[in-house]
Every structure is written in structure tokens, then in C-alpha cells.
Specification:
Layout lengths: L27 E8 L3 H16 L4 E9 L5 H6 L7 E6 L5 H15 L5 E4 L11 H9 L4 E5 L6 E3 L3 H17 L13 E4 H11 L11 H10 L5 E5 L1 E3 L11 H17 L6
Parallel strand pairs: 1-2, 1-4, 2-3, 5-8, 6-9
Antiparallel strand pairs: 4-7, 5-7
Helix pairs in contact: 3-6
The structure holds guanosine-5'-triphosphate and magnesium ion.
């Protein structure tokens, strides 16, 4: 090496040696879509996810869990086979959001590596896949769960009926008081990113009881159970495009309120025990 330069010239007389290629396990994104009668929304969403993933450096797989739909949701999902990496899990009969999330997450927990990232979003096209990139970055920064939140500065909702907005706000207020989770204001939004290792840990800790609520209250229950595993939570502002949703809301409001109150009572009276 010449002393006057900082360019290191290797002595070619020296026996060359080979550096074994580093085995880099590529991180994979798993997108879980619980779908009940979403034939008119699912196709647009899958296309949009495919477009967004084209910019990502990670491989991905979309898991559609068809919850006994009767409107051809399954055929819509099947029409993407061979074009976009899609796996379809079918319930012969409608079982509710809880069972749908459980089956989607269980599949991913078995197939994924701990470093992978699991995204869950509604299949009704109200959640924009454009947000996935920043949610993934938040996980890479060290967070375990990232929630697309209606209650962060910059969040915006378009087309949500006033009554539903009020209901969601009341739910957020109540859950924040009953189950304070650092970094969380939106307990019910289904658009979230999770570190896959955390989902695997939750199944090995709680077994099938990890997701044991039938309806929409499962979203809150999942957070409470992950809080007990010392997960780190973070929120990013959500733009909720309710105006893009085709068809009417299928949420049974009264049932969801009653079940959510029952869930609060259950967790307050009988703290969750790991099985
Ligand atoms: N309503 C309902 N949704 C289900 C069920 N199983 C799976 N899902 C899916 O769960 C996701 C959330 O349901 P949504 O009906 O969008 O719930 P929401 O966003 O709280 O309310 P709306 O958008 O007003 O209907 C959607 O992708 C549904 O297709 C079920 O039994 N009932
Ligand atoms: Mg929805």
C-alpha cells in the first residue's frame, strides 16, 4: 500500500480466500384480510395492495380469510391466483370477525419467521395500502404493534356517518380509561401492523385463547393480551376512506356495544391468565 494514499491494494501473491455468502433471510410481509361479503370491495383492495407492494423491497403474501360469504367473495379472491401471491382460507359458514382473525393469524404464525411483519386490514377498501410502508418502518424502528389511528394528528375520515364517529370516540375514551395502553388511542381499528414474532409468542402463551372473542370486540381483546406480553405500541394517523366502501355497513352496533361492555367486565374482574 502506498503511504501517500488511503487506497488499500491487496497483495495478489497472497492465497486468495473466499468469504462464504452471508445468508440473509429476507423479511416477508403478510397481509391478512378478513372478508365477509366483500365481493364488491375486495378486488380493488387486492389490486391496490399489489401496486403498493411493487415498491417494497420485501416479498409478500395476502391471506384472504373468507368468512362464509355468499356474494362471490371467494371467486374474487381466486381470480388473483397466479397473478398476485394470494392464499385463501375459507369458512364454510359465517363465524364472525374473531374466528376469521384467529384463522388468518394462526396460518401466518405457523408460516412466518419472527422478523416478518403481519399487516391486518379490513377487506372493505376503507383502509389505504399506501400507509403500509410507514407502518412497516415503525416496526423496523423497534415497535411491536403499529395501529392506523383515527385519533392521531393528521388523521382524517371521509364519509363516516356522525353516529359511527361518535360511537368510536366513546369506545376510545372508555377503553383508554379501562385499559390504558401506552401509545394507543384507537383500540378498535382493524388496520394494524404486528411483528410476526409477537403473534407467534401470543399463540404459544395463550394458545387458541389468544383470539377467543367472536365479534368486533376481538380487536380490543388482542391489544389487551399483547399488552400483557410487554409489547411496544405506536400509532400513525389513518385516513379512513369510508366513502370508497361499496354496500352498507354490516356491523351490528347494539351487539358490538353489549359485547364490548362484557369484555371490559371480564378483563376487569378476571385478569387474563396465560394458558
Ligand atoms: N360484519 C362482519 N364483518 C366480518 C365478519 N367476518 C369477517 N368480517 C370482516 O371484518 C372486517 C371488518 O368489518 P367491517 O364490517 O368493515 O367493520 P367496521 O369497519 O367496523 O364497520 P363498517 O365498515 O361500518 O361495516 C371486514 O373486512 C369484514 O369483511 C362478520 O361476521 N361480520
Ligand atoms: Mg370497515
Amino acid at each position: 500500500m502506498s503511504a501517500s494514499s488511503n487506497v488499500i491494494k491487496l497483495n495478489l501473491e497472497v492465497t486468495p480466500y473466499f468469504v462464504a455468502p452471508r445468508i440473509v433471510k429476507q423479511r416477508k410481509l403478510w397481509v391478512v384480510l378478513p372478508a365477509f361479503n366483500e365481493a364488491s370491495n375486495l378486488g380493488k383492495l387486492i389490486e391496490s395492495i399489489g401496486d403498493n407492494m411493487a415498491d417494497q423491497k420485501y416479498s409478500y403474501e395476502i391471506i384472504v380469510v373468507d368468512d362464509g360469504s355468499e356474494d362471490g367473495t371467494q371467486s374474487v379472491a381466486e381470480s388473483f391466483l397466479g397473478q398476485i401471491p394470494v392464499t385463501i382460507i375459507c369458512h364454510p359458514q359465517n363465524q364472525g370477525l374473531g374466528a376469521t382473525m384467529r384463522d388468518g393469524f394462526q396460518y401466518v404464525a405457523q408460516k412466518s419467521q419472527a422478523q416478518d411483519i403481519v399487516i391486518a386490514m379490513d377487506a372493505d377498501n376503507t383502509h389505504s395500502p399506501g400507509l403500509i410502508k410507514s407502518m412497516v418502518n415503525c416496526i423496523l424502528e423497534g415497535n411491536d404493534v403499529v395501529i392506523a389511528s383515527r385519533y392521531q394528528p393528521g388523521a382524517h375520515t371521509k364519509g363516516v356517518p356522525g353516529f359511527r364517529q361518535l360511537l368510536s370516540l366513546a369506545a376510545s375514551f372508555l377503553f383508554r380509561i379501562c385499559f390504558p395502553v401506552k401509545g394507543v388511542k384507537d383500540y378498535t381499528c382493524g388496520f394494524r401492523a404486528y411483528r410476526a414474532g409477537l403473534i407467534q409468542n401470543a399463540f404459544s402463551t395463550y394458545g387458541k385463547e389468544f383470539i377467543n372473542q367472536d365479534g368486533f370486540e376481538c380487536m380490543v381483546d388482542i391489544l389487551i393480551k399483547l399488552r400483557k406480553l410487554q409489547a411496544i405500541f405506536r400509532e400513525v394517523p389513518l385516513v379512513l376512506r369510508y366513502d370508497l366502501k361499496q354496500g352498507v355497513s354490516k356491523m351490528k352496533v347494539a351487539k358490538t356495544i353489549v359485547r364490548s361492555l362484557a369484555l371490559i367486565a371480564k378483563h376487569r374482574l378476571i385478569p387474563t391468565v396465560a394458558v
